[in-house]
Amino acid sequence: MPVREIPEYATASFIFLPDMKSSGKILLSEIEQENKPHRLNNILKDVRCIFYDAPYRDPPATADGMSRRPADDPCAGNYWYTSDDPIGADETATAIQWMQLSYDIKWLEEMVRLEARFVGRENVFIVGFGTGFGIAAATVFQMEERIGGLLGVHPVMPFHVDLKYIALDGQTKAVVNAWSEMEKKRKEEGGQGEEEMEEDFSDVDGAGSEASARTLCVNDGNDQTHEARLGRLMGLLRYLVDKGEVPTFKRVCDRSDASTPVILLHGMDDKQVHFSYAKDTVQTFWNLGYKAKLDIMEDEGHKLSRMMLRELFTHFVKLGLGNEATRSQIQHHL
């Protein structure tokens, strides 16, 4: 269950997503610990603050029947997707990970829709930590309409290599490599060329597809504008959300939107998540046309600090995010 700080009257909604092996309760505790003596609902008294838990978890008990989880926080240790990487920074995704991501996106998009009913879409903000930010980013990538903003702390962008391949060529790394090998083999054998292969695959894929016409692949050539890249990525992610798996043929959306503001914060001395991950993350946004800002903070590590929170919300105010009432509340405590 999410941890909620809900006022009677709200000017904005902040959806907080914890990192892997954490929980909404732990994240709220860390934030309030760094802001003592103030509680979060005193700082953002007219803001809906909702802390969600990642949906996936390991078995709750060991072989001897002893619980691995604290009784007061059964969601501690949850994760957004399975990963053997210590920080969840897998370069490419497996079929299971794509399926898990589709569920994460579908769930988070519904949460955004529900919060927008209270405060308006332009006043909904997602604040992600580590892999929680990666899930938030993937959700925003497939949105047709902007939200108020996307904020990240020590961000980790999972499957970033696959996302790059999709944006550039419309398919995952594995599929692009397989197509290259198939074309090479066919050329050596004097068989079909790439165009004939694409037509064959298009016929097969389209026969059982329930995707709307605007999500089907169009002949965009090698268009590498920001809009074209985001359209390809959005097309695949929208299909993923609908089907729970990546498509076998390119998908393109022509109603993409890259206007959601993005603020990223990372500690230079972070020993757990190297700052190169933050640089890769902001580059991903720039390559898709987003106006993303990355702040690498000196003398800050992985642990969430009062200074990092202060810096995050200082950027929020300086960039004019949200409405005047929300910015005024935040500025009062800076």
Walkthrough of the structure:
This protein is 43% helix and 11% strand. The protein folds into 2 domains: 3-57 and 74-160 and 257-332, Alpha/Beta hydrolase fold, catalytic domain (Rossmann fold); 164-243, no CATH class. Helix 3 (95-119) crosses helix 8 (226-243), helix 5 packs across helix 8 and helix 10 (306-318) packs antiparallel against helix 11 (324-332). Helix 4 (131-141) links the parallel strand 4 (124-129) and strand 5. The radius of gyration is 21 Å and the shape is globular. The protein is built from 11 helices and 7 strands. The chain is α/β, with parallel strands linked by helices. 43% of the residues are buried. A 7-stranded mixed sheet has the order 1-3-2-4-5-6-7, sandwiched between helices. The chain has helices at residues 24-34, 40-43, 95-119, 131-141, 160-169, 173-189, 194-207, 226-243, 275-287, 306-318, 324-332; strands at residues 3-5, 12-17, 47-51, 124-129, 149-153, 262-267, 292-297.
Compact description:
The chain has 334 residues and is an alpha/beta fold. Helices cover 43% and strands 11% of the residues.
Q: What is the mean pLDDT?
A: 85
Distance between the termini: 30 Å
Based on helices, strands and strand pairing, what is the structural class? alpha/beta
Number of strands: 7
Q: Please state how the strands of the largest beta sheet are arranged side by side.
A: 1-3-2-4-5-6-7
Low-confidence blocks of residues: 197-219
What percent strand?
Answer: 5-15%
Helix content: 40-55%
Biggest pleated sheet: 7 strands, mixed
CATH architecture label of the largest domain: 3-Layer(aba) Sandwich
How many domain units? 2
> CATH topology of the largest domain, which one?
Rossmann fold
Protein name: Peptidase S9 prolyl oligopeptidase catalytic domain-containing protein
GO molecular function: carboxylic ester hydrolase activity; palmitoyl-(protein) hydrolase activity
Organism: Hypocrea virens (strain Gv29-8 / FGSC 10586) (Gliocladium virens)
InterPro entries: AB_hydrolase_fold, LYPA1-2/EST-like
